[in-house]
């Protein structure tokens, strides 16, 4: 949406994204590429200096490998490690290699512990060892503790810098404590936080106080009086996907993380969860599209290799469909119109099944299907398949009759259409359910199984009915 | 991931979701359905009472229409309006109807203004008029102001309750002001907030102070000394999708919203943005699957109708493919093996194209494609198509030769495969780009255009080459 206040600035009127995203117009990149080509380091630095680290990350992603290396060499000395957190994995690996592990470690030491863990965990083991050596001891301990938790767990996500107060403190003591810590050493407190946690003598969390409430309360009031005692405690091993679900489900902004003994070990804040929500959904989109992971910035050879395996699986289902057609070679030889029409039935079944499957896969991911409503959903999809089957039976039956002048052929395609659309509704719901039950990610595997079924039923139904009715 | 601390509790060990999501096991729902069937209102209330409003919303979604009505009637008197914010649209409409507009208005009046707007905007006009009448005047004004902004804009998303302080105040004055407001009237301040905003005499924002920083600073320090002056100002008309992009790109937690004159009118916080990020991605997933919107809870007839239109478009492309096959009826009549093998070429092109298209559509949504790298990405996908084309040409050529004992047939399918895979790479990148440029949502339309192209090229290439080489 164009910001009316900006429309007088010329290009803003034709570049609606400009208002929110500086790189949208591409002019900056154009200037940068020119400066890099001319070897004008000073101009490159001038162009980069005013940018947010996320925009620098985007620029690095957009450049060709050579330009990227040239840019890294120019900005190496004041490289902001936050850039690394924002990069696509493939590009990040390349840049870490170009920077060298010593420069990376120096940059990473400047980050908060949770962000630092996120970078270090991507390095291979030898790099990790060398990298950690270059990080100061205090920071290193926090990072190593973070790395000790399982990948994609709450422990990796959480901030370990926390503000905790005992149950017997009041608001005044808490504020004074924070002011005092700020005076002593900046690093003892997280740079930004939203809640302080009240803990018992065993360091178990008993309540949380949002800062906005703390600020509105008079100094003598005990913290236990204004704390929220009903908190959702997150076990440190919880998968990040479950953490994200919980934050969305409960509209949480921050949540305490506890170890096996129930002791407070960290806190997860919503800004960390936003990235998880986004990543998990992007991952699902990629998987449903048959891509293992976003490979926009991967080399052609790597992309070919990673997509090949998925296409092989699809080839198997295509050959299966061909085998079914092969059963009816004799029938097709007599009525060649069947070869012309047969893809219609298979394709419509595939599309109707994909619609149902998409809704079911998402419902599973959102934990919306359970014993109470699963059968009702399957029943509904059968009904939808039946309704649409009848509608498209009429349409395609009419087309076939008109095209080949054979009412019998129209009846055959109409019957096959109804069968395949109902099967599509059944398969679109049950395949994801069965895969989920079997521990297979339904987002990855549902599509290929579904197509196999709708192809086989589509071809077998149509050609089989034709053999029965027309010959 | 199972929480080790809970494994001794019996079912928790076999129900890994239990730790984060109470409804996962389905036992509560089972008990609830029983109590509803028995008409045991007291037991229903007991079961519902300890639940979070989001869980009650989930329960309502899972129930059948009759059970849902029975439950509403039981909990009508102390109905928590937050439940409405968490409901699927279809179910929400049904429940609002059952509750009656007076009860809905009474419940909505309890919400924060941004949440209330979210409910009211879903009502039809007559309901809105009646609903607003039942809401107290002060709250109503805020809601009506919210509704005056365009749908899906920053104005609808923002909280209008704000803490603003003049530039000449210090930390002590700010804290005293907040404590004083809290004493006077609870409603003057938002219930939870993360930043206070420093404004000039024209009420233009000049800086933001995170609460955690305010708390760590001594009373005499001026707010201008600790504020962040570099804020991203969001124009009130900005589309919510751009707002979400900005929050992710800049790792924002809250941002001031300004009107056309640059005056501060509200603030968006990250918890509002989380829902937008999630909705927009879910919407994209649904669209890529050929579903207009999540219709899990819609009636079968409504679902049939909304999916029908998409299937009609697909029928058109399927008929187009059939027309292409029809051109080669004479060829198929002579070599019926062509009918058996032809779906393989079309299907592999479709799958390879879908992989490329998925990556491209997401890259566009994430603003990752621009003049600098677009041609490089297209070039890469052509290369990937070529590489995989050659690999699958060898595979399918071998299969065809072995199956039908004809090396010439193997050569035909191999050549057709290479052509279609390269076309798939080209189409998978350029179709989304062209659609986006034409103002058509690439997530909706790319798939059907892609399939049309890979089907036509697949069938025409294979059958055409066969006619040329084999006859």
Break the fold down into its secondary structure elements and pairings.
Two copies of one chain form a homodimer.
Chain A lengths: L26 H11 L3 H8 L4 H10 L2 H11 L6 H5 L2 H11 L1 H8 L4 H8 L4 H9 L3 H12 L5 H4 L6 E3 L4 H14 L10 E5 L5 E6 H5 L7 H4 L7 E2 L4 H11 L3 E5 L5 E6 H19 L11 H27 L2 H6 L2 H29 L8 H31 L2 H31 L4 H29 L1
Parallel strand pairs in A: 1-2, 4-5
Antiparallel strand pairs in A: 2-3, 5-6
List keywords for this structure.
mainly alpha; 64% helix; 3-stranded mixed β-sheet; disordered N terminus; 6 strands; 471 residues; 3 domains; MgtE N-terminal fold; Tetracycline Repressor, domain 2; homodimer; globular; CBS-domain
